[in-house]
Amino acid sequence: MGTGIRVFFVNEDETLKRIPLTRYERLLGADPEVRFQEYAGKRVRYALAILEFANRKPVEIVSVQYSILSFDPAGRIDAGELEKEMKLGFKMLQPLMTDFDFPNVINAEDRFAMKSFHDRYTWTPSSEIEKAIVNAIFGKNKI
């Protein structure tokens, strides 16, 4: 048994486009050779599925992350938007220390950041999209 990852972009017409993991990693790494011209200037929903494999075939979906990528006009990852996402991610971390001068005050910045992150950079799939992802992974109905 082993684990692996499959990445699917969800097009505006609700169809899936499988993206090779190496190309996805190069896209996130800002490789100038990697671009998706068809997504230039758009925000694209995607699903990143973590899978269990046996004999090089997927046997189980461990988890699926539903996120959004922003592309610049050249079809590359929008570095400015990615930076904003990362900053918001750090704000989601709970503070290590409480304010001893005001012990009754609750610092809720991490909770607000989590809500903002969820609203801006994640999405919830329809049951049809979930089924399409399962079908794309296993090649048959598994739900």
Overall description:
By secondary structure, this protein is α+β, with helices and mostly antiparallel strands. It has one domain. Helices cover 32% and strands 27% of the residues. It contains four helices and four strands, in the order ββαββααα. The chain has helices at 21-28, 79-91, 109-121, 127-138, and strands spanning 2-10, 16-19, 43-54, 57-70. The protein is globular and about 60 Å long.
Question: How would you sum up this structure in a few lines?
Answer:
By secondary structure, the chain is of the alpha+beta class. The protein has helices spanning 21-28, 79-91, 109-121, 127-138; strands at 2-10, 16-19, 43-54, 57-70.
Sheet having the most strands: 4 strands, antiparallel
Q: Please state roughly what percent of the residues sit in beta strands, choosing from under 5%, 5-15%, 15-25%, 25-35%, 35-45% or over 45%.
A: 25-35%
Q: What is the CA-atom radius of gyration, in angstroms? A: 18 Å
Helical percentage: 25-40%
How does the helix and strand content classify structurally?
A: alpha+beta
Q: Which regions contain 5 or more consecutive residues with pLDDT less than 50?
A: none
Q: In the residues, how many domains can be counted?
A: 1
Q: How many strands in all?
A: 4
Question: Biggest sheet: strands side by side, in what order?
Answer: 2-1-3-4
Task: Note the total helix count.
Answer: 4
End-to-end separation: 22 Å
Helix/strand order: EEHEEHHH
Give the rounded overall mean pLDDT: 88
Shape: globular
